[in-house]
Amino acid sequence: MDNSKDSQDNRIKQLKAFDATKSGVKGLVDAAAGGAVDIPEIFIRPPDELAEDLEVTRTSLRIPAIDLNGVDHKQSSTREKIVEEIKQASERWGFFQVINHGIPMKVLQDMLKGVSEFNDLDVEVKKEYYSRDPERMVKFNTNYDFYMSRAANWRDTLVIDMLNSYHLDPEDLPSVCRDATINYLNHLTKLVDILFELLSEALGLETNHLKQLECEKGRTIACHYYPACPMPEQTLGVSKHTDASFITVLLQNQVGGLEVLHGNQWAQVEPIPCSLVVNIGDLLQIVSNDKFKSVIHRAFGNRSQARTSVGCFYHGVATPPKIYGPIKEIITKESPQMFREFTVRDYMMKFYSRRLDEKSGLNYVRI
């Protein structure tokens, strides 16, 4: 008798049974109706992963917080200081938080409130959006790698996939979060333009270099909801991974739970009110020829509170196919080309065809 095959068959049955409810992790919590929530086996992390966690220490270091106040004054000492801070953070951490970024507090609060209110909808309403169809632009589900992962993550996600189509019809969004989402994305567009300018300057390039590469063109917006979890140490909200993006901009509520691997230690990202978290993705590490780092990160749920976050992933141009590769101006004798050219479409197809926590996709294109 092959016990491992029986175990795998049983796991697939459990995954299918959960998925068939179309009610997500929150559906499990709501079904407990105030009683204790039992975490299903499919969410429990494997023993070897839990053991490995015990070997990695935590650090009290914090990712840099960068004040963007005065960033509009080009050729000023303030802007030069901001560029230098972004350069250092992108090279050493791959992560930073931005404050005074110009997006009003109410816009941020309304966006997070919209995510919570969508997840609080009657399950029959949410079921209309529940889908694993890769062609569907707006969909709700639990974990894109649900059937591939070793352990499912304790989160539900409303996804807005604008990788192949850059036009979003507001009517496709759930009405409960429609206006807040459109308003937030409109504000974010201006900030992301500024961030790509600063990153270009931090690489020693012309201000509009990354903009000319259309790094901000294709977007995926992931509105994550992590219900309160009775055993957050047994299951992850998001498995450790790097992002398949140029940059990711994350809005999160004050619950916390995000951790970044820095010098082989986990650093907690303490939420700063009204801040946004920015991280370098794989694609920017490639085009920067390894100067900027896409680093491993993960997130935990919280024992007593729901965590909400909105990640906007900027992928560049996927359709029609556009060739990207290390920026020629950065390649020198001292820094020879480290990566092959690639298309975003190929990179993303590989990303979505594997488990989230598998080794970085950088291995596909490293020379």
TrEMBL record:
Domain Fe2OG dioxygenase, residue spans = 217-316
Q: Which InterPro entries match?
A: DIOX_N, IPNS-like_FE2OG_OXY, IPNS-like_sf, Oxoglu/Fe-dep_dioxygenase_dom
The organism's superkingdom is given as Eukaryota
Keywords on this record? Dioxygenase, Iron, Metal-binding, Oxidoreductase, Vitamin C
One Gene Ontology term of the molecular function aspect: dioxygenase activity
Metal-binding keyword on record: yes
Question: Pfam family of this protein, just one?
Answer: 2OG-FeII_Oxy
Gene3D superfamilies attached here? B-lactam Antibiotic, Isopenicillin N Synthase, Chain (2.60.120.330)
Q: PROSITE patterns this protein is in?
A: FE2OG_OXY (PS51471)
Family recorded in the similarity comment: Belongs to the iron/ascorbate-dependent oxidoreductase family.
Q: What is this protein called?
A: Non-heme dioxygenase N-terminal domain-containing protein
